[in-house]
Amino acid sequence: MALTREHVVGTAVSVLRDFGLADLSMRRLARELDVQVGALYWHVKNKQELLVDVAAQLLGDIPAEVPRSPDPATARTAVVQLATAIRSALVPVPDSAEVIQLAQSLQPAALAPLTGLRDLLETAGVGAGHSAWAQHLVLNHILGSVAAEQERARLESVEGDPAAPGGPPLGAEAFAWGLEVILDGALLPR
User: Fold this and answer.
1) DSSP-based three-state secondary structure for 24
2) N or C: which end of the chain has fewer CB within 10 A?
3) What superfamily would CATH give domain 63-185?
4) pLDDT, tens digit, for every residue of 9-33?
């Protein structure tokens, strides 16, 4: 089978899912694909470009369509649904928050659901001048929630005691509460 960009990215996603970002090197990827490292560079310019494609694939099943002229309350509901879908897609993938953050910094247009999030926030009532800030705030809440839940799960698996990490659980319920606090602070109508 001929090596393709899609195959390279798909294998990189598999390595990330199975082993985490620390093990996602170009050498490891080449070994998984049974090719020389140089062959990868015919398909991706560098690891950063690869990680942008990995991030896009992680978010690829999330619909990015933004409702055309919803009222602000409907848009707020859509913001909650989209933010929750992004979080749900990322929680099972180790180090996904770090990959998304990097990709968002390098090539934000490649992550359609995040652009959709900004557009929904605008429709929901955040002024155009502040929609990028609101998107940044909501995205940081999503990624922080993902990272906290993954770290808690990692500690529980290492220490074998669900109470070992201490503190309150930081799962979906805590995420939903925090998201509502953020949206209330942005004065978005319910």
Assistant:
1) coil
2) N
3) Tetracycline Repressor, domain 2 (1.10.357.10)
4) 999 999 999 999 999 999 999 999 9
* Residues ≥6 apart with Cβ < 8 Å to 109: 115
Does the pLDDT value for residue 88 go beyond 80? yes
Do residues 90 and 150 make contact, with C-beta atoms less than 8 angstroms apart? Answer: no
| Sequence-separated (6 or more) residues with CB below 8 Å from residue 139 | 100, 104, 114, 117
Question: Which residue carries 């509460």 as its tokens?
Answer: 177
Could you tell me which residues come within 8 angstroms of residue 36 by beta carbon, excluding any fewer than 6 positions away? 30
Tell me the C-alpha to C-alpha distance, in Å, between residue 127 and each of 72, 108, 120. 12, 20, 11
User: Distance of CA 16 to CAs 50, 87, 146, Å?
Assistant: 12, 17, 15
End-to-end CA distance of the chain: 53
> What local confidence, expressed as pLDDT, does residue 4 receive?
95
How far is residue 17's CA from residue 19's CA, in Å, rounded to a whole number?
Answer: 6
Q: What is the DSSP string of 70-125?
A: --HHHHHHHHHHHHHHHHHHHTTSTTHHHHHHHHHHH-GGG-HHHHHHHHHHHHHT
| Residue limits of CATH 1.10.10 in the chain | 5-44
Letter for the amino acid at 111? L
